[in-house]
Amino acid sequence: MIRNLFLSLLLSGFAIAAEKPNVVVIMADDLGYGDVSCYGANSFETPNIDQLAAEGIKFTSGYCSASTCTPTRYSFITGNYAFRFPGTGIAAPTAPAIIKPDVVTLPDLLQKGGYKTAVIGKWHLGLGGENGPDWNGELRPGPAEIGFGYHFLLPTTNDRVPQVYVENSRVLNLDPKDPLWVGKKKPSEDHPTGITHRDTLTMDWSHGHNQTIHNGISRIGFYTGGESARFRDEDLADEWVKQSRKWIGENKEEPFFLFFASHDIHVPRIPHERFQGSSGLGYRGDCIIQLDWCVGEIMKILDENNLAENTLVVFCSDNGPVMDDGYADEALEKLGNHKAGGPFTGGKYSIYEGGTRTPFITRWKGKIEPGESDEVVCTIDLMNSLASHVGVEIPANAGLDSLNVMGALLGEQGAKGRDHLVQQGNRSDNLSLRVGDWKLLRHNKGQGRNLVVEKKLENTTVPKFQLINLAEDPGEKNNVFEAHPEKGEVLKVMLEKIVSDGRTRPE
Questions:
Q1: Which domain holds residue 243?
Q2: Of 384, 409, 434, which marks where a domain is finished?
Q3: Is pTM, for the whole model, over 0.85?
Q4: Is 71:82 a contact under the CB 8 Å cutoff?
Q5: Are 94 and 118 in contact (CB under 8 A)?
């Protein structure tokens, strides 16, 4: 009897351990619903992402919470809708840390559950105290203060200065004799910019993006110095994979959480030379091929370390697609028949489906049965879902909008996703609300941004409120508010309540 009890306890311990999978979240940047072949792209192939989908669940209603990068990343890490918190818009190069050390985060909770945690790749959530980053000292607060035990970062986003890596709160390879300066104003009259030295650029700008030049490309913002710390754009993807391989190898004996934050396919789109010309669609398409390579390399790392059957992989994007986003990189000219947003209207910056409905895939070999799901899931829900799954309690004042949809993420029979979702546009007061097949769009200024991603960004006049039946009109072409005024009013009241209540997660 004692022996049987011992075996029972032992097996129970194994079962508990098996339910604490490693977690790898691969977040693409500006990747549209139709940008990968398993979601309908036919101009090129993305075999590694396709394999991930074939071995896991491909969600057809998988979302990020906002149609720009900083607010989606904020919401993913904190479980809070970004529109509730001023200062969570697209972060400037000199922005201080947007997520404060007293905010409970996803990596905080996983650390409490015994996880090693890391973020490798694009950050773009600010660094440093209220005065902004101290580029020549310690960049605190930052990821280390909100639960990430290790970080290796592109500190802003690569169309913003500076072009340096940050490892564990310091600029990597910085020579103190050549200090780094980053500012909002031109440091001197003779400082080269994309305007004064446009003829020297290897990639021209189309709007904005015309200040300090690095690697032949002008950026947003100004910086000088730090020459030994600067990187080549072409090497970013390789560096993320290299650092991920090293960190996983060093932490594979304990449960780990890796946020692999790719910069692909955000501008400036400069893939490594071996990928240039690989897609036939210009550098934007080539960067998708490079992203697919990264996914394949992460899968190889898991296989090499015998981790695939104890690792939940989540593939997603921080927002939908955009073509000309400030650089003349032929994204429009070489687009051909490619539909980056798939069947959906809009893209980056917008509250139309193309802005926030993106590829969303979960894979856990041996646990998830491969298939397809139309359940509504969102990156904001990973905090609650993962913490609940590993048995960590979320404080009542944290993760205010993160719901537990773990059953749907794992494909459990009968498990449901979200029953509603708020989508945020580039303006924090432009919001939409999806409830089932119905969707209310609220443009407070009466303008819809980037309605057609196959054209240049444009503001189009639209009604303040629109009502869409997504089952009948996934492309959001027909406003049926006047035909269904009662449904429209119900959703208006519901959206107003969600905003005013300050939370959607039950207390």
A1: 21-175+225-409
A2: 409
A3: yes
A4: yes
A5: no
